[in-house]
Amino acid sequence: MIKKLSKKLNHPLMSNNIDKDDRNVLISFLKKNPRLTASSKVLEFEKKWSKWLGTKYSIFVNSGSSANFITIRALKLYLGNNKKSEIITPPLTWNSDVVSVLENSYKPIFCDVRLSNLAMDKNEIKKKLNKKTAAVFLSHIQGFNGLDDQLIKFLKKKKIYLIEDVCESHGAKYKNKKCGTFGLASNFSFYYAHHMTTIEGGMISTNNKKFYDLCCMLRAHGLVRESKFKETRNFYKKKYKDLNEEFIFFENGFNMRSTEINAVLGINQLKKLDRNIKLRNRNFKFFINNLDEKKYFTKFELTGISNYAFPVFLNNTDIKKRDKFEKILKRNFIEFRRGNAGGGNQLRQPYLRKILKGKKINLKNTDYIHKYGYYIGNYPDLKLSKIKKICEILNSIN
Length: 398
Ligand SMILES: Cc1ncc(COP(=O)(O)O)c(C=O)c1O
Known about the structure:
By secondary structure, the protein is an alpha/beta fold. It folds into 2 domains: 2-16 and 273-395, Aspartate Aminotransferase, domain 1; 20-264, Aspartate Aminotransferase, domain 2 (3-Layer(aba) Sandwich), CATH 3.40.640. It is 41% helix and 13% strand. The chain has a 7-stranded mixed β-sheet with strand order 1-9-8-5-4-2-3, with helices on both faces. Helix 7 (149-157) links the parallel strand 4 and strand 5. The longest helix has 31 residues, at 260-290. The chain is globular. It starts with a helix and ends with a helix. The site of pyridoxal-5'-phosphate has 16 residues, from helix 4 and helix 5.
């Protein structure tokens, strides 16, 4: 047994996400001595992204976290004074989802996730909805679709908005329609290791004109001149006659814009996205089929998947065995993250502990993933032969 483990495998979380072709495209763009602050390339990227996703509008920002923040701020403004104060929020997601809820003075209401798709359980969501619920902020984690008909219909009936965080799941589908097109708005991240990258970057997508308008202004300091609509600009111009129309800050916004360089990279990466999604899904299926189901949880919902990384969930919940598992991965140079999205249960993090003040919330599945759920890299140029070796190592761990 130990003999197999002595083989060292170099397996990083991500490899080569910006290739020679991307670098050449960037070099030839820069050689033209172009304007570099947000301009025509940003608009082009937004249009192409909207077309790829299937929404009317998209707003390119400097990170997925900024997309989260602007979205929740825009939601607050969109809802106006309707006194809805709670947002159903995942405990298994990146901290920026929770922070965006908190920083916009909403109370996050947490629901446990399902192991089969890592998204909040619809029955848990239903139990926690009430008159104060402004929205359900659902994260599609690691490429799994987190939606189903019952949830979508229920939210529609109750007139509760759905916001989709698709930062880890570009191209995942529900009923053949891309995740990120079902709610009021959706968020994507283009951080280096994601399905596609702009080095740092993010996108907000929506079909709602007013929501789009709010996001465009919020992305750039809250400046009214950033609105794409004449009627909005005229409204504020008439209302604040004492102000220079170039400098009307309609709300407390920040600068969360990106640049032309990032947009040029995004446009080029988008061309390769569908091909790369196919390769990652092929890798994922091969991985799951070769993993020992007695040792690892493998009953994931595969329909509509756009895999981001291989989930490795230990069936044996023994801390000593877990430590041994980590040692063997390190010894084989298999890079890993424990806790999955955002490091596991957000409620265990110091920034939330101080708010919860010891209040206990039962999040059994999230806690299991926090302690025994890992992910390792899956990238388009990963060879099946290497995946086989990785599985051999994983399957030989006792
Ligand atoms: C689910 C989720 N939401 C939001 C983010 C934040 O994206 P960024 O790192 O681009 O700020 C991430 C980051 O990986 C994420 O996984």
